[in-house]
Amino acid sequence: MDTTLQTEITIKDICEGFVYNELEGKGLFGLSGKLTIQPEYQRNYIYADGKRDVAVIESILKGYPLGLIYFNKVSDNNLEVLDGQQRITSFGRFVTNKFAIKDQNGMEQYFSGIAKDKQDKILNTKILIYECEGTETEIKEWFKTINIAGVPLNNQELLNAIYSGPFVTLAKEEFSNSTNAKIQKWSAYVSGSANRQEFLERALDWVSKGNIDNYMSKHRFDDNITELKNYFNSVIDWISSVFTNVETEMRGLEWGRLYEKYKKQPYDHKKVAEQVRELYADSYVKNRKGIFEFILGGSTDFKLLDVRVFDEATKKSVYAKQTTEAEKNGTSNCSLCAIGHDANKTKIWKLNEMDADHVSAWSKGGATDIKNCEMLCKTHNRAKGNK
Ligand SMILES: [Zn+2]
After folding, report:
1. 280 contacts: CB under 8 Å, gap ≥ 6
2. How far is the CA of 351 from the centre of ligand 1 (A)?
3. Please, which residues have CB less than 5 A from ligand 1, an ion?
4. How far are the Cα atoms of 50, 313, 323, 348 from residue 317, in angstroms, in the given order?
5. Does position 76 have pLDDT exceeding 60, yes or no?
6. What's the 187 CA to ligand 1 centre distance in angstroms?
7. Is the pTM of this model over 0.70?
């Protein structure tokens, strides 16, 4: 790979013919059309947050270096930004009056409103640029190893770069476009942001059963995303037909796995809604995220709910009472050992050898309070399990 250091290119040069696509949130072109700011393998512009974009402009005004920027030289008249897209889009947007910065008096100022000498300072700032020339493989390998200043590429952004092609382009149009109205609906079940490729990542994760890398490699040159789209929609439709009310805790669950495991089971959505309501109202349920899988699996796996356990004070107090009584009667302080026939019949267990148990099972309405607490030796407690 050949690299040439360019030191004479100014912000003004780069902003010549700068085009920003508001809809897709992308900086598109610069350098009079010669420069492609956001090739397909680049992630979306994520600096438009009134902090990072403003910081870029403030750095320039203070004369701080913006850091190295890398271009990939595709041909004599065609360069692509390899690294620096966020910074370039930030100053490009500022120079074209897309956002404002605050002046010394805290007033918002657009580029057209700041003093001429400050405008010139920005426009005449020279950027250090490495132009790289190499094969696609070389460039991509290298791209994999660099991190964009501040925010490293996440895994899906990296995969999009490695497997760039018609499939990724189509998939990003569907899953990475935050103006897509469907994102709103999907975000009830999928966490993360479309811009950071987290919806795309989830869709790929579900359809590939966790083998995103393989799937992307296999489909890299496909000219359609039908399977990906259909599968994702099937999962979303299934969730919303089983659970008709949207709860906050549904966001980010492993819906792909749950869909595969339970899609063939019939559910009465009214009954399900009733169960969800009851469990949400139950103060002993510590893990609300587990409610959905618990119901899907037939309401038997109580571990999923992480039912509130007895506190230490309760355990100690019940232990003391049981042990005093047991010593008086010459029996074990574990009531199940006491009625057994082995050597443990008279064993006095230590506190740390016992666990608290619900006398009347929690699942049958037994409360988690001192009146419903009994200490059992660990073996018996485990054997009794969660009834
Ligand atoms: Zn026992």
Report:
1. 247, 288, 291
2. 12
3. 334, 336-337, 377, 380
4. 57, 6, 10, 16
5. yes
6. 49
7. no
